[in-house]
Structure formats: C-alpha cells, structure tokens
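Appendix B: a complete holo record

For completeness, this appendix reproduces one full record from the ligand-bound portion of the collection. The bound molecule is zinc ion. The inputs are the chain sequence and the ligand SMILES; the output is the full three-dimensional arrangement of the complex, encoded as structure tokens. No fields have been trimmed.
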Amino acid sequence: MRSGTTGCVTPDTTETPRPGRRAAVPARPEAVLFDRDGTLCRDVPYNGDPRRVVLMPAAAAALRQLRRDGIPTAVVSNQSGIGRGLLTWKAVHAVNARLAAMLGGPVAFHVCPHVPADECDCRKPAPGLLLTACRTLGVRPQRMVMIGDIGADMAAAAAVGARGVLVPTPATRPEEIAAAPEVAPDLLAALAHVFSASPADPDLHRAASPAAQMISSIASTGRRAAAPLGLA
Ligand SMILES: [Mg+2]
Ligand SMILES: [Zn+2]
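The structure of the chain with zinc ion bound, as generated:
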C-alpha cells in the first residue's frame, strides 16, 4: 500500500476557475476534522467488528504529521447503523478504538447515531457534529478544514463556514467530485494543499496514481455541469 504522494501535487494552471470561486488564499487551518468511513478507514457498511478496520492510504501518515505539527484533529462520523438497530454504541466505540490504535494515537470521535428520518441536527450534511467538534477543540469553524469522501462532508463544512477538501474513493459520485470546493488524491496531498503557504489554485489535479487520474478526468468532465453550483 502506498504511503502517500505529496511530492506530485501540481496545480493545473490550464484549468479555468469555476464561477463563484474566491481567489483569496485561505488562512492556515488551526484544526483538521476528518470523516471516518471512506476517509480514514475503508467504508465497511455498518461495521461493528474492529478486526475489519482497514486504514485508507496515507491515513496513519497524515495523523502522524498533524500530531507532529501540533494541529488538533477530530473525527466526525455518521453511524446510522446505531439508529437502525444494526450497530450498538459499544461496537462503534470498539471500531473507533481500533482505528485510533491503527492511527497511532488518541483520536476524538464525534458520532451521529441517527437515521435520516430523525431529522437531527448532527447527521452530516447537517452542521451539528462539526460544531460540537469545534467547540471541543476551541477552534472557530472558519479556521477549520473538513476532509471527507462524499458530498455530505463538503456540505457540512460549508454549513459551518469551514473549508472542505474532498478525497474521493472509487465510490464517490462524479457529481460530488465535480461540485467539491477542493479535491485531493489522498490525505497527505490534502494536508500539503491546505497547509501550503503558496497561493495555488484551490483545485489539485495531478497525474501520479490511477486514483488521481480518475479524479482528474472525472472532475474535468464534470466541471461544466457543476457551474450552477457556484455562488449565485
Ligand atoms: Mg465517508
Ligand atoms: Zn444525528
């Protein structure tokens, strides 16, 4: 398994900026929030078995880097399996503990146990989990980055005024990649991007891994259709 590809991140200067995109360089983040399933570990639906936790590429390296740099982190995770009766809190805690151990240190988890029909204010794309994480960390949402693998993570980030970076998997919908404010091929590339001081194009398109090529091709073909998502 790859350990990360930060060295190959190059902004695609041939890309036309999307409508509604701010040109200003975002402030350096003070905290990083992560989605869990499909972002830090493989998405195993309703997984309550710690033995089935498999890290995503670069997850351990990303967390190691953030700890080294003193950047606080938290995980914000929808676990509707609890509300559906398919998972117990105990099982979710066991999976989280296993994930934290594999990531090499303590990790703060904020979990929504609800199903969509509950219409709670914590299930992403609602902002509740992110706001709780912000309060716990003592960081303003505007100074946070949310990294996730689907559109709901980006929508939750937008809802609280945080910066959102999508790290897609093959399961991520093309339209969600096209609509994402920023896209990176893996977690280390996402961190390199958001902690970079250089005023780079917010889009990351590079040509190293097959996944990166997939992202690049999907994002560029989906770009025109995404135009209405710009701020009107
Ligand atoms: Mg996910
Ligand atoms: Zn909830």
